[in-house]
Amino acid sequence: MCAIRLTDVTVGQRESSADFILKNINGYFPRGSMTAILGPNGAGKSTLIKTIIGFLKPVRGYVEIDVSLRAQMSLLPQLSEIDKSFPITVYDLVALGAWRRLGPFKSYNKKEQEAIQRALEQVGLQHQANQLIGTLSGGQLQRALFARLIVRDPEVFLLDEPFAAIDEDTCEDLITLIQGWHQKGRTVIAVLHDADLVARIFPDTLLLACEQIAWGKTADVLTEDNLQRARRLALKGF
Ligand SMILES: Nc1ncnc2c1ncn2[C@@H]1O[C@H](COP(=O)(O)OP(=O)(O)OP(=O)(O)O)[C@@H](O)[C@H]1O
């Protein structure tokens, strides 16, 4: 069953040329699939994820999302997009995951408080709950953002570079969490840079270099030919 379908999706305009940031992306993410979006720097990976969640609108083509999933998608932004100076504790950041269920006026009931506590324990931050996020390391902040996702418990996880600039132990812990979501039948779409990691973890891959190089089973996509084509396009500025 299809969770998200992309038809001829074409987005944006590059600053350096009249060309588009993403051109003619076609395919679909089956429900319960786990797909890596891989490609060189500037390939349009983050742009695609932002288009899927609706922050950006295609100039051509369209994104269709299964109606039962439309309010069930969550984005993990790049760590660099998080303002660490914002005066919020780890607990309150994680609790924001329950916001869609509670809205602005309901207080956190016992069930939600337990879910927040469990999520903090799952990512190993139970002892940092009362610290401001500004005091956390990069890896700890990523763990806190994952705990927020655990509390949110969406059907579709959109992860923008979940392993960038974090330590190896955190990376392995987060991989285990992502695999758990996949085993529960959730749809996972993650932007990544590391082809070896993708080959190890992700069953499906979309290889991008402004255009769609290949989309399918990871072993079929990550061929030397495809990777070279992506590199060549990147070298000539797409
Ligand atoms: N808001 C924007 N306005 C104009 N150009 C943008 C905007 N956002 C991104 N771009 C450009 O679009 C191109 C693709 O950016 P995007 O961040 O999607 O690529 P990416 O594959 O995620 O790259 P990276 O791996 O470096 O994070 C880049 O050339 C970038 O400069």
Automatic annotation (TrEMBL):
SUPFAM superfamilies: P-loop containing nucleoside triphosphate hydrolases. Keywords: ATP-binding, Cell membrane, Membrane, Nucleotide-binding, Transport. The keyword Membrane applies. InterPro entries: AAA+_ATPase, ABC_transporter-like_ATP-bd, ABC_transporter-like_CS, Metal_Ion_Import_ABC, P-loop_NTPase. Coiled coil: none annotated. Gene3D superfamilies: P-loop containing nucleotide triphosphate hydrolases. It comes from the Bacteria. GO terms for molecular function: ATP binding; ATP hydrolysis activity. The keyword Protease does not apply. Residues 4-235 form the ABC transporter domain. Belongs to the ABC transporter superfamily. This is Metal ABC transporter ATP-binding protein.
